[in-house]
Amino acid sequence: MVEEDVLEFVVAHKRKYSIEHLWYQDKDEKVTIGVSDFLAKDVGEILRVILPHAEDEFAEDDEMFSIWTADEKISFRAPFSGSVMEVNGEVEINPELINESAYDLGWMIIMEPHHLDMEIFLEPEEYVGALAEL
Where does the pLDDT of residue 52 fall: very low under 50, low under 70, confident under 90, or very high at 90 and above? Predict the structure, then answer.
């Protein structure tokens, strides 16, 4: 019998997800963005986070932020254009917050989208289904 590695992770509700393993939570025409708990658990210890500056502007597909592990740098691209309203400087100082609290203390940025249809993202159940196919 072959033992399989089991990865335990949480998928938070009241958020949408991308296949790139980011979560999006919209409130008052602003969108909070973070890394999913699945990705945080899958990549292991996150050692460094590079965030943009508040008031930076992104076009769709611009690099938003990146995380560094012992093995790789992972860059995340903007799925929509918008302005950065706020950044979570705490994750730059303490990147382990992403591994410990991906959906709460480990959020990355808050953006004000220029145009956004939240339907482009996956519901939590759809995200879990997509992960099962990976």
Answer: very high
pLDDT of residue 2: 45
Integer Cα distance of 109 and 64 in angstroms: 9
> pTM for this structure?
0.92
Q: Residue 6: what pLDDT?
A: 61
8, 32, 111 from 28: Cα distances, Å? 32, 11, 11
The domain 16-127: what is its CATH number?
Answer: 2.40.50.100
**Nearest in space to 108 (alpha carbons), one of 26, 49, 43, 27:** 49
Contacts of 54 (CB under 8 A, 6+ apart): 84, 85, 86, 87
Chain CA centroid to CA 10, Å: 13
Q: Is 63 helix (H, G, I), strand (E, B) or coil?
A: strand
Q: How far apart are CA 3 and CA 67, in angstroms?
A: 30
Mean pLDDT over each residue of the chain, to the nearest integer: 93
Q: Are the beta carbons of 82 and 64 closer than 8 angstroms?
A: no
**Domain residue limits, the chain:** 16-127
